[in-house]
């Protein structure tokens, strides 16, 4: 099963936007994410609708942040990205009449719901500003003289 990387990709793009001294084109972001510019435009469309990014057309145009990273949580980005699946589907529907399958699926479904609730609660408490500061801190350690 292919995993959904929309959340990771859009977070990657947003964090790069913070460090850019000009708007980033869909093509430039696509190159960073190893994808197609159309995919980038789709990824960022929900964030534009939510007011987190803006886009300018024409020469010198591109995508830019509309708000400070401290004002955007992981939960905000997750919702703006269309709430992609957080976990793969663990249940099977091979024989819905099977009592064993019913019991396994009920337990797995309940456990996944609990895990999703915990993860989304954590997402609500982490801002993109937190991630940006962590990146800068690691960057300073990597570039510090030995």
UniProtKB/TrEMBL annotation:
It comes from Paraburkholderia unamae. It holds the Pfam family Rrf2. InterPro entries: Tscrpt_reg_Rrf2, WH-like_DNA-bd_sf, WH_DNA-bd_sf. This is BadM/Rrf2 family transcriptional regulator. Gene3D superfamilies: Winged helix-like DNA-binding domain superfamily/Winged helix DNA-binding domain. It comes from the Bacteria.
């Amino acid at each position: 099963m292919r995993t959904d990387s929309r959340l990771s990709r859009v977070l990657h793009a947003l964090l790069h936007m913070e460090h850019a001294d000009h708007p980033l084109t869909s093509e430039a972001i696509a190159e960073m994410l190893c994808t197609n510019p159309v995919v980038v435009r789709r990824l960022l469309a929900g964030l534009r609708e939510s007011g987190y990014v803006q886009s300018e057309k024409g020469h010198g145009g591109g995508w830019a942040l509309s708000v400070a990273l401290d004002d955007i949580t992981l939960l905000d980005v997750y919702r703006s990205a269309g709430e992609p699946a957080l976990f793969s589907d663990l249940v099977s529907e091979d024989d819905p009449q099977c009592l064993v399958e019913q019991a396994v699926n009920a337990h797995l479904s309940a456990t996944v719901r609990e895990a999703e609730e915990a993860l989304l609660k954590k997402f609500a408490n982490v801002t993109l500003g937190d991630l940006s500061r962590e990146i800068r801190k690691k960057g300073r350690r990597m570039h510090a003289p030995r």
